[in-house]
């Protein structure tokens, strides 16, 4: 990669996968798979374009738009669109690369891709967002389709943006098709889709807890620290509460809202209030302003807001940590702090939520202690695939012109998360050396290897490497 500009996020994702494969017995048993890694690390196609739009003052605005179509061996490219000022090619390549193997672990026929723009929806009117979406889709529409590339939402792209994007696609192409997922329920969307990533994350951790405790424990009584306050964090928190756990925190880019007294937890009512806050694009800190409608609900006796910190080291003793905000949100120092706080399970609701240093610390703890005492870490590509899995189910419903019930979709989601957990578990046992019976298998290694092998085998069958 020496002839390319620095792409730190993508390079981190690539090195994390490559080191996992190198440290397993995969290349010893199948040395030919080195060729597959070399090919799979380069996107099949990268599309970059300008988006010109007019703001409410009549002034011209220009943004950069992207779509990274990374791998289509298993199906149409599938992955979200992110509208955020931080968006660049490195971040989208990292997300698209992760998406390849995440989608493989769902068991559904989906390739991997990612896209977005350096457009910031915050502070924009609905009319400005609509105009931007029209400009963005006018260019993107020539590169996507129900059997080619099916984008979804991501940070900054909610149901509103999906609606604007879908409407423009339909006008340009003169056809109604399942080209986007996350659509409204009355025009092709799937039940459980907004909840799917958060719910799926908790279903996955439920299997971790049950396996590690040999069925003796569940979420009941567990103290859970959650970062983020978007869809993933909200629905993960609600599911934790439903299963008997105690949620200790939520956060945003400016700080963390944590339980002040150390004993209570968030209630569903409080989480719903935060969801409304986020729909209005307000920060968590605004809860405590004098004119805030939420001030009575979030009392100073129960909550405190800490500026410019993540929640990991500010909630006391914890059992489960769920990073649900963005990449690299658990550092090495915070990983050590979580271990000192008693955490036993860490699972990523965000993509690449832990730095490589943090992952190394978690994995070292796993291998140095018995399963009753060690940390068990699950990577995002396995633990947070519930969202894209239900997107795949939405694609299936669109193709058949059917709508499944909430119970049907939730049951399928549970089955997919169980299969992801078991696939990573069994693959780790096959390819990753273990120090003994009491060591928990490496879910990060098992998931990486399982996803990679499925994609590599399909690529070989299709002549992409030989």
Automatic annotation (TrEMBL):
<dbReference type="InterPro" id="IPR006095">
    <property type="entry name" value="Glu/Leu/Phe/Val/Trp_DH"/>
</dbReference>
<comment type="subunit">
    <text>Homohexamer.</text>
</comment>
<keyword id="KW-0547">Nucleotide-binding</keyword>
<feature type="site" description="Important for catalysis">
    <location>
        <position position="154"/>
    </location>
</feature>
<dbReference type="Pfam" id="PF02812">
    <property type="entry name" value="ELFV_dehydrog_N"/>
</dbReference>
<dbReference type="GO" id="GO:0000166">
    <property type="term" value="F:nucleotide binding"/>
</dbReference>
<feature type="binding site">
    <location>
        <position position="197"/>
    </location>
    <ligand>
        <name>NAD(+)</name>
    </ligand>
</feature>
<dbReference type="InterPro" id="IPR006097">
    <property type="entry name" value="Glu/Leu/Phe/Val/Trp_DH_dimer"/>
</dbReference>
<dbReference type="Pfam" id="PF00208">
    <property type="entry name" value="ELFV_dehydrog"/>
</dbReference>
<dbReference type="InterPro" id="IPR033524">
    <property type="entry name" value="Glu/Leu/Phe/Val_DH_AS"/>
</dbReference>
<dbReference type="InterPro" id="IPR014362">
    <property type="entry name" value="Glu_DH"/>
</dbReference>
<feature type="domain" description="Glutamate/phenylalanine/leucine/valine/L-tryptophan dehydrogenase C-terminal">
    <location>
        <begin position="190"/>
        <end position="463"/>
    </location>
</feature>
<feature type="active site" description="Proton donor">
    <location>
        <position position="114"/>
    </location>
</feature>
<dbReference type="GO" id="GO:0005829">
    <property type="term" value="C:cytosol"/>
</dbReference>
<dbReference type="GO" id="GO:0004354">
    <property type="term" value="F:glutamate dehydrogenase (NADP+) activity"/>
</dbReference>
<dbReference type="InterPro" id="IPR036291">
    <property type="entry name" value="NAD(P)-bd_dom_sf"/>
</dbReference>
<keyword id="KW-0520">NAD</keyword>
<dbReference type="InterPro" id="IPR033922">
    <property type="entry name" value="NAD_bind_Glu_DH"/>
</dbReference>
<comment type="similarity">
    <text>Belongs to the Glu/Leu/Phe/Val dehydrogenases family.</text>
</comment>
<feature type="binding site">
    <location>
        <position position="99"/>
    </location>
    <ligand>
        <name>substrate</name>
    </ligand>
</feature>
<dbReference type="InterPro" id="IPR006096">
    <property type="entry name" value="Glu/Leu/Phe/Val/Trp_DH_C"/>
</dbReference>
<dbReference type="GO" id="GO:0006537">
    <property type="term" value="P:glutamate biosynthetic process"/>
</dbReference>
<feature type="binding site">
    <location>
        <position position="231"/>
    </location>
    <ligand>
        <name>NAD(+)</name>
    </ligand>
</feature>
<protein>
    <recommendedName>
        <fullName>Glutamate dehydrogenase</fullName>
    </recommendedName>
</protein>
<feature type="binding site">
    <location>
        <position position="102"/>
    </location>
    <ligand>
        <name>substrate</name>
    </ligand>
</feature>
<dbReference type="InterPro" id="IPR050724">
    <property type="entry name" value="Glu_Leu_Phe_Val_DH"/>
</dbReference>
<feature type="binding site">
    <location>
        <position position="78"/>
    </location>
    <ligand>
        <name>substrate</name>
    </ligand>
</feature>
<keyword id="KW-0560">Oxidoreductase</keyword>
<feature type="binding site">
    <location>
        <position position="391"/>
    </location>
    <ligand>
        <name>substrate</name>
    </ligand>
</feature>
<feature type="binding site">
    <location>
        <position position="153"/>
    </location>
    <ligand>
        <name>substrate</name>
    </ligand>
</feature>
<keyword id="KW-0521">NADP</keyword>
<dbReference type="InterPro" id="IPR046346">
    <property type="entry name" value="Aminoacid_DH-like_N_sf"/>
</dbReference>
